[in-house]
Structure formats: C-alpha cells, structure tokens
Task: structure prediction
Amino acid sequence: MSEIVTRIADNVGISPDLAEKALGMMLGFLQREAADGPVAKMIEAIPGAAELVAAHNGEGAGGGGLLGGLMSAIGGGGIMGLGQQLMAQGLGMGEISTLAKETMAVAREYAGAETVDEVIASVPGLSQFV
Result:
C-alpha cells in the first residue's frame, strides 16, 4: 500500500500521511455507500485497501458539525459529506478532485474498469467527480 499512498501523495501534492488518511476515508465512504458486491471486490483487489478502510473508515463519520448535520438532514450527505470530511483534513477542492481521480485510477488497475464503473454508478453524484 505504501507505493500506492506515495503515488497518490505525489500526484495530489500532499503528504503521505494525509494521502493515507484521505485514501482510507474515500475507500471507507465507498464501502458504506456503493453497491456491496462491486465495492467488496474492488477493495479486496487493492493491496492494503482493507487495512486502510479499517484504520480510517470511521473518520468524521456522522460528523461535520452543524453544516454536516444540515446536509444529512436535507439528504445532501453522501458525496458532499465526504467532501466536508476531506476539507476538514485540510484538502482543497482541487486536491479532493485529484484524489478521487487517482483513487479510481488505482482501483481500475487492480480491480478492473468494469468493477470500478459499477462502484461509481452505484453512488449518486460520484461520476461527476471521477
């Protein structure tokens, strides 16, 4: 996983520690929000992904303060909630977009385009970010 984290850190322009945490948060979000079969297959295919999810899956879950609570209350949690959690870690919108694209590129390399496309299609709004 360290090779993947280093690649993402370099391509996004963030520290490896932040890249590891953000990748774990993103994969954890996908595990919670995407169709069970395809996302399980994707996470199993990426070396070290299950460990990252275990370490960072709960990060910020259900949090986000007042705005996060409002977004969830009006049905806008989902991808917006993940964005808020990543911004709370210090990432800007450009970095989050690059992180999402890099995460999906890595996933395609390991799990295949068909599986990753199924994951993306099963999460409302995700396709516009990746």
Notes: The chain is about 75% helix and 0% strand. The chain has a mean pLDDT of 86. The CA atoms of residues 12 and 40 lie 25 Å apart.
